[in-house]
Write a structure and sequence with these properties.
Elements (H helix, E strand, L loop, with lengths): L2 H15 L1 H14 L1 H8 L3 E2 H8 L3 H13 L3 E6 L2 E6 L1 H7 L8 H14 L3 H7 L4 H5 L7 H5 L7 H20 L9 E5 L5 H9 L4 E6 L1 H10 L8 E5 L10 E7 L7 H14 E11 L10 H13 L7 H10 L3 E6 L5 E6 L1
Parallel strand pairs: 4-5, 4-7, 5-6, 7-8
Antiparallel strand pairs: 1-3, 2-3, 8-10, 9-10
The chain binds S-adenosylmethionine.
Length: about 350
């Protein structure tokens, strides 16, 4: 290995070895509101001013700001012998709460929940099952949703906020994988806060979307996320394993199947197939593993979280094919996209 190659390799080693520091610095800066303050102030500020406005120590804030400069979240300029800090475009777009593609809420749940949960990763690997009981300190054998939606967990709204953040980044990319304009009645199964539905009707304005989710989630979505003035979005309270599924031309299953084992996936897909209008279909949205399971890295990393929290997994194209075919769907097509891929099956 040449000296240049070794230097590059050592850089990669450093990035992975200390990746947990990077994540937590990003989360901490975001939770303190540094990126929001700098975005709202519209000017570069000294670390002393930022510390004062955010109520932190001067020394701690300066250290955090310098790390954020190294990570390219912030930029610096020198004026009157002072260092001033301002957001990079990256921070304005993704890290500030009001950024148009803000991931603030996703970082928040990663910080307060995902980060801590990772201490049980070795247990999950050793035992081959989720660690919800250890993570939440409960003895009952609840599924992931029963666990995080318990009022004691305080995680329902943070989880919904996090889910809500994704589709401003990837919604359009996924929804344009296929021409879906000939499906007038759409049911977003496990549609959560409705952010996928909102993106959907902005792209396909002649469609209506029914968000199907558990009663407590529908209630919160109605009150906090979806305007009652948009009559193209309606709601349906149901447990998709136990209750009847309303009739639709297209069922969306975005980030649903990866939470469940094969048997439950086929059970759900079969219910959708039975309820589906003739000529209709199902659109599965997931990060699909390469057939040889060599990547993409995003799917391999998400799969570790799924092991930790659910009975599900990320799957390859042929694994999705098996599930959709078993439920009766035909003409199954997969389109790879930036992060979330689209699989369309027809009735
Ligand atoms: C990972 S989230 C995905 C949310 C949304 N589809 C998205 O991609 O942003 C899974 C969703 O399924 C819902 N869900 C879980 N179990 C359910 C059940 N048995 N019946 C109905 N909805 C359920 C959850 O409440 C949650 O909104």
């Amino acid at each position: 290995m040449s000296a240049t190659e070794e230097a590059a390799t050592l850089k990669i080693l450093f990035q992975h070895q200390y990746g947990f520091l990077t994540s937590k610095i990003m989360f901490t800066a975001s939770e303190f509101g540094i990126f929001d303050l700098l975005m709202e102030s519209g000017e570069f500020l000294t670390s002393a001013t930022i510390a004062e406005r955010l109520g932190t120590s001067a020394i701690g804030m300066e250290r955090l700001l310098e790390a954020c400069v190294g990570l390219k979240f912030l930029q610096v300029e020198r004026k009157d012998n002072q260092t001033l800090y301002g957001n990079t475009d990256f921070a304005n777009l993704y890290l500030a709460k009001s950024g148009s593609k803000s991931q603030y809420h996703y970082m928040k749940i990663n910080s307060v929940f995902g980060y801590q949960s990772m201490q049980y990763l070795a247990d999950a690997v050793r035992e081959g099952k989720n660690q919800n009981d250890r993570i939440h300190g409960i003895s009952s054998n609840c599924d992931f949703y029963e666990t995080i939606y318990r009022s004691e967990s305080g995680l329902q709204r943070p989880f919904m906020d996090a889910m809500n953040a994704t589709w401003s980044l990837f919604g359009r990319d996924v929804m344009t994988a296929f021409d879906l304009s000939h499906f007038p009645f759409v049911c977003d199964v496990g549609g959560c806060s409705g952010s996928f539905a909102k993106e959907y009707i902005s792209l396909y304005p002649n469609s209506t979307v029914t968000i199907l989710d558990l009663p407590e989630i529908v209630e919160t979505a109605k009150n906090h996320y979806v305007s009652s003035e948009d009559h193209r979005i309606t709601f349906h309270e149901a447990d998709f394993f136990k209750d009847p599924i309303p009739e639709a031309d297209l069922y969306i299953l975005a980030r649903i199947l990866h939470c469940w084992g094969d048997e439950k996936c086929v059970q759900l897909l079969t219910k959708l197939h039975n309820a589906c209008k003739p000529g209709g279909g199902v659109l599965v949205v997931e990060t699909v593993l390469n057939e040889d399971r060599s990547g993409p890295l995003e799917a391999q990393l998400f799969a570790m979280q799924l092991l930790l929290h659910t009975e599900g997994k990320e799957r390859s194209p042929s694994e999705y094919n098996v599930l959709l075919s078993a439920a009766g769907f035909k003409e199954i097509q997969l389109k790879k996209r930036i992060r979330y891929d689209a699989i369309l099956g027809r009735k």
